[in-house]
Task: inverse folding
């Protein structure tokens, strides 16, 4: 966590500039987020976990979702707050969310669980389950690998010294762990990499909290 926090603190401004238009260029990603916005309980609160510079949080806000962001990096939180002042964002950790049990109608983790080792995903998914209400909707996005185990490590990014790991995940394993955590998968998508993306497939999973 310390490495991830300090790494994103160091690259926050450059990262935000580099990925500023990514949603504008990805119609399929916008469609998935739009479906989530339509399916989440009306007027229910939504948390964007690992919200980074706030572009996904702001996009959902523009679709009428009552959403706030939470991110590990103070620099990312400051940047998101400055860029999107109408959308609240606070610092926090996905394994210990500052929400009461069953408080949320929805939760988005858009390319944020990729920084957590797969062995800790049951802990993360249990925390997501805890804060979601019965029937609450979860949306995950991540880079795909046929089997878990591939880790992309960076010691440098945007000219800054960092220690960042990106875990590529198995769709079947993620869906299986969600089921064991008390979720029912509603939809999964797989798309090929777009121009400028790392050459791996991209996946999303939408699931409802149904277990006890």
Result:
């Amino acid at each position: 966590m310390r490495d991830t926090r300090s790494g994103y603190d160091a690259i926050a401004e450059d990262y935000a500039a580099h990925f500023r238009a990514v949603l504008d260029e990805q119609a399929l990603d916008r469609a998935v987020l739009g479906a989530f916005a339509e399916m989440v309980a009306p007027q229910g609160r939504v948390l964007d976990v690992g919200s980074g510079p706030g572009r996904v949080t702001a996009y959902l806000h523009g679709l009428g979702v009552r959403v706030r962001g939470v991110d590990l990096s103070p620099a990312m939180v400051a940047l998101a707050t400055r860029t999107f002042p109408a959308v609240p964002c606070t610092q926090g950790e996905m394994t210990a969310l500052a929400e009461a049990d069953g408080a949320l109608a929805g939760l988005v983790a858009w390319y944020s669980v990729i920084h957590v080792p797969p062995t800790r995903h049951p802990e993360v998914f249990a925390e997501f389950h805890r804060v979601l209400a019965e029937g609450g909707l979860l949306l995950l996005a991540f880079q795909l690998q046929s089997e878990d185990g591939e880790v992309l490590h960076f010691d440098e990014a945007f000219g800054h010294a960092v220690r960042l790991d990106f875990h590529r995940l198995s769709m079947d394993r993620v869906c299986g762990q969600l089921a064991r955590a008390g979720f029912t998968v509603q939809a999964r998508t797989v798309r090929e990499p777009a121009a400028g993306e790392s050459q791996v497939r991209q996946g999303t999973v939408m699931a409802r909290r149904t277990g006890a």
Notes: DSSP finds six helices and nine strands in the chain.
